[in-house]
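Our preliminary data section would be incomplete without showing what the modeling component actually yields. Below, a chain of 268 amino acids is followed by its predicted structure, encoded as tokens that our downstream tools consume directly.
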Amino acid sequence: MIPTDTIDKLAACFASLSDLGSQLNETEWKSPTDCPGWTVQDNLAHLVGMERVLNGLPGTSHSAGPRDHVKNPIGEANENEIDSRRGLTGAQVLAEWNDIAAARLNTLRTADDAYFDVPAMTPTGPGTVADFLHIRVLDCWVHEQDMRRAVGRPGHLSGPAAEHTIDRLIRTIPIVVGKRAGTPDGNSVVIDITGGVQRHIICSVAGGRASLTDVEPEAPLARLTMDTETFLVLATGRRAPGTMLGAVELAGDVTVGNKIVTTLNMMI
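Predicted structure:
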């Protein structure tokens, strides 16, 4: 089946990135972001390199050399693509982005069912091209937000792509509440996300297993309230969680609440 909804969300991310880029001056393009070693321009260069490869174009032959923030072969490949474009202006990287974004969307809009059913290795394990695209929405939206935070230009914090990403991140909350925070059996934690993407999340531990549920107890063990951007920053490990505690309202068992905040990074 052609994942039209996913393609539409990806198209919205592509358009929003292009719009953001059109507003930036060269100083802003070179501003550091929460991604170690990456500027605003580097974030977009990363997306350019990924979409080129996904669209069947060759990757760079450039080698960036050792970098302290590169931890694995995937990170090394990403860094090679980024470093090959560091000598360019932000406007030049944006022009390349606009070209590959248009080409990529044309590929996706004209592909048949078979294209999306092809087996593909995704960051979460074996899947299909359609599954991989589902994660591409997350990657593009998260990096857009990295860029926006760095230049103080908030935007696109709501809508289908934002909801898609936040909901994917929410899937991992049972691991955080149960395993990482050690919430005692028979207890529940409530997390309220406010602002752009509003979510009321209830996670209960029963029989030693944490799971999301629609049933809220009268007195949850802990309740955490934070806005969409705070949740995103914590869930993607963009900043040290200790620096974000002031942005989270805690009620109930503060010890458990703080454990959840400090272990919420789902993109390790």
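The chain has eleven helices and seven strands. The mean pLDDT is 95. Preliminary results of this kind motivate Aim 1 of the renewal.
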